[in-house]
Amino acid sequence: MVTIQTYISKNNYDAIDNKKLLDNEDFIPIHHLNAKQLANQQLINSKGTTFYGTVIISYQHQFLSSFYDWDDVDGIWLSILQAMYDCLITGIGNSGFSERSMDWQLKKLIEKNPAILFTWYHGFASKEWNDIPIKTTLRFPENLLLNNIIEKGTTYLKFRDSLYDSGPSQNINQLINNLRSFK
Asked: Residue 70: phi, psi to the nearest 5?
């Protein structure tokens, strides 16, 4: 069972960055009653450019990402969608963020039952740029991962479209439509 859940931070960038351990108490899922209000407030404070959160991905109760893997939620979703698309086209999709030192790789495994090896490099956003990131790797059945990314990407797109500033919704929608062509 694949689980993909998008969360919005209850705090601004500085408050998240200064907290060393993050957990589910620091975030709310986008289906929460207050998520839209919280995201809109962050967008207003950032003049429409950013709201922070994370995308938690797990497979069979093993977690690929965690609440520590927070950043601009639009950027996370755009990167996951683009990496999945690139992986399906070329066999490998890479993406990530430089500020938080996070990135991921999706690699298509040619087997009897096609699979995707999804590696998430968890960066350390410390002031010292010499931290060594750790990584988590999970193997997903290709169609299961693809279907879940499309479904949860669409859920995120609907949430994003409901905010006062639609941001990169058009780009997110195009990537989701591109991925649907692989079904």
From this structure: -100, 155
